[in-house]
Write a structure and sequence with these properties.
By secondary structure, the protein is mainly α. It contains three helices and no strands.
């Protein structure tokens, strides 16, 4: 049952992160949930590295949103540079 809650909370965190990030993100429902879950992991790892969380403790709801925003910014940067490189190839 905890996995179901993890997916539900991850989806909500992903939706909030997408709403807070400016611009359009083309992610489906599954990738939005994955974004939220991964954001929670990123927030947990960064929080432990900075000494905000004890080892083994998870990130909170706000921390998860911040982690998801970080991942969403990285995703946007990668997709922007990928799309920018597509137009540079000469037509043959």
């Amino acid at each position: 049952m905890s996995y179901v809650w993890m997916v539900i909370v991850g989806f909500v965190v992903g939706l909030i992160a997408r709403a807070l990030m400016p611009g359009e993100q083309k992610l489906g429902m599954i990738l939005t949930a994955v974004l939220g879950i991964a954001g929670s992991f990123v927030a947990g790892f960064l929080g432990q590295a900075l000494g905000l969380y004890k080892a083994g403790s998870g990130a909170g709801f706000i921390g998860s949103i911040v982690g998801a925003l970080i991942l969403l910014a990285i995703y946007g940067f990668v997709m922007k540079s990928k799309n920018k490189g597509d137009g540079d190839a000469p037509n043959q």
